[in-house]
Amino acid sequence: MAYSLSARILILVAACLIAGAAAAQGAKVSSPVELAKRAQLLKPGQWVWAPAIAPAGPVLVYVDLSRQLATIYRNGVRIGVSTVSSGKPGHETPTGVFTILEKNVVHHSNAYNNASMPYQQRLTWDGVALHAGGLPGYPESHGCVHLPYAFARELFGTTRQGTTVVVSDGATHQMASAGGEVLAPNTVSAVNDGAQDGEFWAPERARSGPVTIVMSRSDQAVVVLRNGVQIGRSRAVLPGDNDGTHVLTLGKDGAWLYVGVAGHAGEAGRPLDAAVRQRVQIPAPFYDSVAPILLPGTTLLVTAAPLSQGGAGTPLTVLSGDGP
To answer: Are 75 and 251 in contact (CB under 8 A)?
Structure first.
């Protein structure tokens, strides 16, 4: 079929506009500075990706529902940021600490008209997952976290089954600027006067998988999860001088590294000061039980929120979406 010159020009212009729009949706960069600049300017459907900044190490995904953003960290360093769309009213995305239970490049919803869910990474067995989906600029999913298609593909290739995903509603739990705390083998009488109700150590509940430690200032307690299953709980003495939320990951060299979550971007990749560690006190026998399972990639979350009692197959909710 022959086209007039004007028609061919219009077709060429349209093709260029389409290509430009597609390219504008995402960008791959190579420096932390460029990543930071682009991350501040993201519009719905856009993302930025810089895996070369931290080419190796444990991966953590942090989803901020209040800002509709997902941030990816490797070895405690931010390597990617993407806009997301989470659950709409009545289908809110649950907050908490999750592990990726399964991964499927091609997946369809069993609950919502066989809807396509490309690059699905399941967080709960009742249907919550990360996957490519619509991004209108506000929460509109049925509970999943929608990602741009190309970013979902990049993320899928970076994570593995068992990768930790933290989902937070930062609107009601603002991040304060203060030092974090971390598990340390301190011995004081306040935490060594005999076992209390609810304390236990049962590693046989989950014999393998990624380890997540959650510390609650309001409960003055520490909970250990492996592969999403609670395997231990103990009392702890945590300073209550701030209500900030801090996330750390254990690096390959055995050092705890801050993950620069919202409000703490400057902490990303910084090792934890030894003096800060000594601010947390837990029973020495409990620490001795936990220490052998602390491997690179272990995630630590310190929160002012109370701990719920999680069970096998149920994520432990540590960041509530309800206001005070």
So the answer is: yes
